[in-house]
Write a structure and sequence with these properties.
There is one protein chain. This protein is α/β, with parallel strands linked by helices. The strands form four sheets. Strands 1, 2, 3, 4, 5, 6 and 16 form a seven-stranded mixed sheet that branches. A four-stranded parallel sheet has the order 10-9-8-14, covered by helices on one side. A three-stranded antiparallel sheet has the order 11-12-13, with no helix packed on it. It is built from eight helices and 16 strands. The longest helix has 22 residues, at 276-297. The chain has two domains: 2-109 and 230-297, FAD/NAD(P)-binding domain (3-Layer(bba) Sandwich), CATH 3.50.50; 112-226, FAD/NAD(P)-binding domain. 42% of the residues are buried. The structure holds flavin-adenine dinucleotide (FAD). Residues 7-13, 30-37, 39-40, 43, 45-46, 77-78, 105-107, 110, 125, 132-133, 136-137, 233, 236, 267-268, 274-277, 279 line the site of flavin-adenine dinucleotide.
Amino acid sequence: MEDCIIVGAGPAGLTAAIYLARFHLSIRLFDCGSSRAALIPKTRNHAGFPDGIAGKDLLARMLEQAELYGAVREMFEVTRIEPLAEGFAVHADGRTFPARAVLLATGVVNKRPEGLDDPLHGEALMRGLLRYCPICDGYEVTDKRIGVIGTGDHGMREALFLRGYTSDITLISPGAGHELDVDCAAALDAAGVTRVDGPCGGYTIEGERIAVDTAAGRLAFDSLYPALGSRIRSRLAVAAGARASEDGCLEVDDHQRTSVPGLFAAGDVVKGLDQISHAMGEAGVAATTIRNMLAEQRPIRR
Ligand SMILES: Cc1cc2nc3c(=O)[nH]c(=O)nc-3n(C[C@H](O)[C@H](O)[C@H](O)COP(=O)(O)OP(=O)(O)OC[C@H]3O[C@@H](n4cnc5c(N)ncnc54)[C@H](O)[C@@H]3O)c2cc1C
C-alpha cells in the first residue's frame, strides 16, 4: 500500500510529489498530460523568474526536482477513487492501486469559444492573441485593444477587471444577444466598456491581431479573452463522496482536507485563486498535513 497517490502532475501535484518524496513517504503520481500550465506561453507573474518562464519549462523543472527524490510520473488516467475501510483503492490503467491517502490535483479546463479549431487556438494562445487569465497576463495588454467574449455577471467582471489595464474594451456576447441585468449594464457603461452582440465566429489571425465576426461586423483585437467559465475536474472526488460547490469546485478545510477523511485536494480543482503560486501553496499544506496524518497512524522513523 502506498502512503499517498497523487492524481495530477500540474504545479499542485508536482509540488506535493516533491514534498511527500522528501518526507521519505512512498507515493505514486498519475497524470494524463493536460496541465493548464502547459498552455502558458510565458508566465511573467510567477515569482522567481524575472524574464518569465514557459509553462512547459516550469513543469519540466518541477518534474526533474520531484524525480531527484524518487518520484515517478506515470501517464495513466485515474478512473475511480474508491474509499475503503482503511485508505483508498485508486483505479487506473485497468489496475487497482491501494493507498493510505489520496491527493486530487486535477485542475480545471477552460471552456473554449465555439468555432475556434485546435491549430488556430494553439497558435493564438502561443502568440498572446488569445488569453484566459487576466490576473496572470493583464499587464501584457496594457493600453491594447481587447475583446472579451462573454456576458452576464461573469463577462462583466472580466471586462471590468481588464479595465484596470486598458480603456479599449469590447464585451462580445458569445450567443446572439447579451444577458446583462440593469446593474451589469450600468457598471459596464460607467467604465466605458463597449458592448457588441454575437454570435461570435469566423476567428482568424490577421497580422498581429485576432479577428472575429460579430453582429456589429468583423472586429480585430490585440487580444481576446474568453470569459466562458471552466469545467472543474472534480468528478473523481465527488463520486468518492467529497462535497463540492454548485459549479464543481471541491470544498476543503484550511489543511486541504475534503469532506472524505484521507482525501485531499489542491490547486485549481479547489475553489480559490486559479494561479500557479496558489496551487503550489495549497499542495505544500496538503502534503504536510498528509505526512502528519500518516504519522498519527504509525510512526514515521528512519
Ligand atoms: C493560457 C493560460 C495562461 C496562464 N498563465 C498563468 C500565469 O501566467 N501565472 C499563473 O500563476 N497561472 C497561470 N495560469 C493558470 C495556471 O496554469 C493554473 O493555475 C495551474 O496550472 C493550476 O495547477 P493545477 O496543478 O491545479 O492544475 P493543472 O496544471 O491543470 O494540472 C492538472 C493535472 O491533472 C491531470 N489530470 C486531470 N484529471 C486526471 C485524471 N483523471 N487522471 C490523471 N491525471 C489527471 C491533468 O492531466 C493535468 O496534468 C494560466 C492558465 C492558462 C490556461
